[in-house]
Write a structure and sequence with these properties.
The complex is a heterodimer of chains A (about 425) and B (about 150). Chain A is of the alpha/beta class. Chain A has helices at about 15-20, 50-60, 70-90, 105-120, 140-150, 165-170, 195-205, 225, 250-255, 290-310, 310-330, 355-365, 380-385, 400-415, and strands spanning about 30, 35, 35-40, 100-105, 125-130, 150-155, 175-185, 210, 230-235, 245-250, 270, 275-280, 335, 345-350, 370, 370-375, 390-395. In chain A, α12 (about 355-365) packs across α14 (about 400-415). Chain B has helices at about 5, 10-15, 65-80, 85-95, 130-140, and strands at about 30-35, 40-50, 55-60, 150. Classes of the chains: A alpha/beta (about 425), B alpha+beta (about 150).
């Protein structure tokens, strides 16, 4: 184990990570009597105090059901919930608030599109293109739709670096392609596909495009209009927001033609015992009482990251990824999976002779929290002939010292398994 | 001894690296497949049963040190046992590794069951108990005609 390589420059100058760390109460705790080193933000990020406070304030001071009461509390809660929609529309640069549908997470958003849009507009023989990089949440809904409609699912392969094989993508695209559903950043490898080009190419053959933005939206600015994405989904909890709240962005024209996903209160225009007529989007897709406090908490999270600046967060995390890649790269028995030129701050690896679960247990005892296993992305694990990896993922609050702690704790693994 | 060293004792690391009875024994006449969908680990238990005696036993699959070592040690212990003895051992083993089993000290009157005590360290790691028990649950499936495949979830 050597000391830190001197060729890597210091942390980026204008990013006061110590100040941001202080915003996250959980980061000051210990685990197994060791300071917590949290390297699992790609699974779910920790929450800043402003998000915790926003959720508490909603319940303590301004909570009632939304869209129905005429009383003051209901007005306040409705303003908070709809204000969150406006905030997120701006964050994504959507053309209109009405293009933002609240869901419980990205998984539900993809299922909504598959069931409502796919179930209406796709027929037997129509082709949906996904990629080997996808999370199970962007695979299984299409399998379910295939059961219902007989669509054909095709997957774009990756090269040995984990980058998409764009030549294969172009071969798969054709007149039968109706949808391309692709991740904006691989949760297992970090690879960032060239979605701008993929969207242009898909539109050229008349196909629609859904982007799974879970891992991308936390690391860089997203502009759905510049991308020209038809659908864009993400989960609030990975963006430092609460669990149980997610977002589906859909172009207004597409949402307008889609039937409801679920039936219930708040999504109707009129109901008799015989029939219902439905509200316009986004209400049409938000049946029942939604996660009001969750939306308000997510709004606070968007304010928080916006105040820091997504470009600055991206630069900080890129620095951490480069530092970690170089630092861990000098461990002979360590193999990194995912070496594509464009990557989010995710480092997946395994160690010769030690199973990822054993590595994860040993790291945990050093206070280092990583994700181990297949990361709900079994096809990409199969592509590399492995059952799983150890994944360190970096958020805005991580530091080079966290990387050093990871490096040192890997030394513990090698002491036991070496 | 730290909890970690207790978990990863030499004998466990040895069985994990060099599992015994790995493969399908000749004349095997029963098997079952076990799977942990959370981590992707798999194990297949092969048995050569003669009446209710386990004449031979082997396993295949891939997994962490704990799951491979547990499967390896299980095959060593169960070879030559009757199904009733195996059932009894499973109950004792489960009491040994289950995190909430502190009150029910297993009586180790069967001398070769002592070998399994090295796996007791897993009790301190609730997330890993399933790694230690997967092979045993799969063994039970192999001798139960109604359950050809088991999963930890």
């Amino acid at each position: 184990m050597n000391t830190a390589p001197s060729s890597v420059a210091g942390e980026i100058a204008d990013f006061d990570v110590a100040r941001y760390r202080a915003d996250f109460p959980i980061l000051s705790r210990t685990v197994h009597d060791k300071p917590l080193v949290f390297l699992d933000s790609a699974a779910s990020a920790q929450k800043p105090q402003v998000v915790i406070d926003a959720v508490s304030h909603c319940y303590e001071a301004e909570y009632a059901n939304i869209h129905r009461g005429v009383h003051w509390l209901s007005e306040r809660a409705t303003a908070g919930y709809e204000g969150a929609r406006t905030k997120i529309a701006k964050f994504l640069n959507a053309a209109s608030d009405t293009e933002i549908v609240f869901t419980k997470n990205a998984t539900e958003a993809i299922n909504l599109v598959a069931s409502s849009w796919g179930g209406t507009f796709l027929q037997a023989g129509d082709e949906v293109i996904i990629t080997v990089l996808e999370h199970h949440a962007n695979i299984v809904p299409w399998h379910l739709l295939r059961e219902r409609t007989g669509i054909v699912i095709k997957a774009v392969p990756v090269d040995d670096s984990g980058a998409l094989d764009m030549a294969a993508y172009h071969q798969l695209l054709g007149p039968r392609t109706k949808l391309v559903s692709v991740t904006h950043a691989s949760n297992a490898l970090g690879s960032i596909p060239p979605v701008e080009q993929m969207i242009r190419d898909a539109h050229a053959v008349g196909a629609r495009v859904l982007i799974d933005g879970c891992q991308a939206i936390v690391h860089s600015p997203v502009d759905v209009q510049a991308l020209d994405a038809d659908f864009y989904v993400f989960s609030g909890h990975k963006l430092y927001g609460p669990t149980g709240i997610g977002v589906l962005y859909g172009k207004a024209g597409l949402l307008a033609d889609m039937p409801p996903y679920q039936g219930g209160g708040d999504m109707i225009r009129t109901v008799t015992l015989e029939e219902s007529t439905f509200a316009d989007p986004p209400s049409r897709f938000e049946a029942g009482t939604p996660h009001i406090a969750g939306a308000i908490g997510l709004s606070a999270a968007v304010d928080y990251v916006s105040a820091i600046g997504m470009e600055r967060i991206a630069a900080h995390e890129a620095d951490l990824l480069a530092y970690a890649t170089e630092r861990l790269g000098d461990i002979n028995s360590l193999r990194i999976y995912g070496t594509a030129p464009r990557k989010a701050s995710i480092l997946s690896f395994d160690l010769a002779g030690a199973h990822p679960h054993d590595v994860g247990t040993i790291l945990d005892r050093e206070g280092v929290a990583v994700r181990v296993g297949h990361h709900c992305a079994q096809p990409v694990m199969e592509r590399f002939g492995i059952s799983g990896t150890v994944r360190a993922s970096f958020g805005l609050y991580n530091t080079r010292a966290d990387v050093d702690a990871l490096y040192e704790s890997i030394g513990q693994v090698m002491e036991i398994f070496g | 001894m730290s909890a970690l060293r207790e978990l990863y004792q030499e004998v466990i690391l040895d069985h994990g690296k060099s599992p015994r009875n790995f493969g399908k024994p000749e004349g095997a006449n029963a098997d079952a497949h076990g799977h942990n969908p959370l981590c992707g680990d798999t194990v297949t238990i092969h048995l050569k049963l003669n009446g209710d005696v386990i004449e031979d036993i082997g396993f295949e699959g891939r997994g962490c040190a704990i799951s491979v070592a547990s499967a390896s040690m299980m095959t060593e212990i169960l070879k030559g046992k009757t199904l009733a003895e195996a059932e009894d051992m499973f109950a004792r083993f489960h009491a040994l590794v289950a995190p909430d089993a502190a009150a029910c000290e297993p009586g180790f009157d069967a001398p070769d069951l002592d070998k399994l005590v090295v796996l007791a360290g897993v009790r301190e790691f609730p997330m890993r108990v399933k790694c230690a028990t997967l092979a045993w649950h799969t063994f039970k499936a192999a001798v139960d005609p109604d359950r050809a495949e088991i999963t930890t979830e």
